[in-house]
Design a protein that fits this description.
By secondary structure, the chain is of the alpha+beta class. It has four helices and 15 strands. Strands 1, 2, 4 and 5 form a four-stranded antiparallel sheet that branches. The protein has a three-stranded antiparallel sheet with strand order 3-12-11, with no helix packed on it. The longest helix has 24 residues.
Amino acid sequence: MNQPERGVKVGRNDLCPCGSGKKYKRCCQGVADVPRPKPHPQKPKIRLKSPLDVAGIRRAGRLVIDTLDLVESRLAPGITTDAINTWVHEYTLQHKGTPAPLGYRGYPKSVCTSVNEVICHGIPGPRVLQEGDIVNIDVTTILDGYYADANKTFFIGTPGPEARKIVAVAGQSLKEGMDMVRPGNTVGDIGWAIQKYAEGQGCSVVRDFVGHGVGFDFHEPPQIPHFGQRGQGVQLVPGMVFTIEPMINLGGHELIILEDQWTAVTRDRSLSAQFEQTILVTPEGWESLTPYPL
């Protein structure tokens, strides 16, 4: 069944390809016939997911969405972003998960909370959410060795017209990108659809951060830009799992990184919003492994 020369090399500390959720070294290392992740026909570094893998990512995705739902039910003016971090951290651990951001490349918290002009990677702290704010909550959870990733932008209290616009455009931008996912299309088709829609609404698409493969690790190939040209880039094939997470600004797409080396904000301090889901390419099209309505 297994032909190593046609598969992807599995490291000792990688997730075992048998689907157990254990590390390879503690599971099937040395077993000749263990199934290994198939490579993408064009890009061997892209590891396709088996039905067992997809089931594991889907379970992790359910916990991600349950966590976001919990946070949404508690959001209100006067809440600190650090309180959100506590909710996410405790809920994840209570359900046998691990918050993937905590300690990742030195990141100090369990979730990203990005308010108003913050594009992404906002670090939770003493900031108090105010009436009329928007806040993006980005949750990545490890469950039984599998990763799933999703985020949503929420209104705090009653939003103003600019907040309503950017949140609506960001949500529809994700939908436009997802609707381009099908075997035979390319990564460029996804970015083209997002860019065409967002810029048509008078907004801009962030270039500096992109979607990514996910499932076996936090970030895997391929990168998924949210801008581009039709027909360009890696071809989509069944078994690919990646995030689509367009960051849409009300003003220009330029950004700056703050002194904490994580927080990205719009250079012109315009509002920014984002929605993200983990997407599986299926033979018929796509399935969200972190589904929520848009």
